[in-house]
Q: What sequence folds into this?
């Protein structure tokens, strides 16, 4: 894939950073990135890092050490501002006050987790046909909806984040694939359906007035 001009990457990243304050990054392969964009992010261990700064370089210049050149991406997960305003019936001032409390408490990941579907499997003893038995450890699986997947930065020019000295260098070696199903890209009816689904999951009253 051909890299985009540095100015375009900066524009995309700046738009992502201005669109919300709860952002996470996940490094993976090109094939996995496409699957995540199409269906959401399924995982069984904590495999993302939170983006706590407004640094373009830090947002873009992430990856995963197991992926090599031409097969390395950086998935961007975001709980966008417009979704939270719709979910919680907040106006601009209400959102700014609410999100500042989240940031002060360093609770961005907790908010993301509250919108993630988790399934836990308890430990289980397995008996074999011999005198031996073993115990399967507890495990979990989780799913972040595709509506919170912004898209993916794609590493180009046979580069990965391990091959560059700093995030600044990444800006000249990236492309970007956007997700049409990301919440901020949906029409009003699609947004309303998704918000109602998430309100039901969280037990939030959708009839309260904006504040």
A:
């Amino acid at each position: 894939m051909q890299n985009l001009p540095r100015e375009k990457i900066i524009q995309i990243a700046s738009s992502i950073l201005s669109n919300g304050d709860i952002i996470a990054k996940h490094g993976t392969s090109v094939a996995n990135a496409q699957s995540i964009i199409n269906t959401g992010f399924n995982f069984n261990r904590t495999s993302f890092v939170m983006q706590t700064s407004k640094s373009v370089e830090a947002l873009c210049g992430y990856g995963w050490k197991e992926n090599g050149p031409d097969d390395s991406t950086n998935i961007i997960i975001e709980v966008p501002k417009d979704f939270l305003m719709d979910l919680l019936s907040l106006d601009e001032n209400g959102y700014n006050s609410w999100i500042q409390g989240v940031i002060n408490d360093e609770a961005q990941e907790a908010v993301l987790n509250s919108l993630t579907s988790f399934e836990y499997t308890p430990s289980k003893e397995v008996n074999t046909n011999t005198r031996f038995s073993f115990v399967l450890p507890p495990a979990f699986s989780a799913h972040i909806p595709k509506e919170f997947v912004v898209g993916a930065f794609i590493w180009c020019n046979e580069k990965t984040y391990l091959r560059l000295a700093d995030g600044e260098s990444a800006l000249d070696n990236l492309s970007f694939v956007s997700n049409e199903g990301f919440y901020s890209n949906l029409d009003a009816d699609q947004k309303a359906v998704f918000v109602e689904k998430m309100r039901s999951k969280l037990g939030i009253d959708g009839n309260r007035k904006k504040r």
About this structure: The mean pLDDT is 89. The longest helix spans residues 188-202.
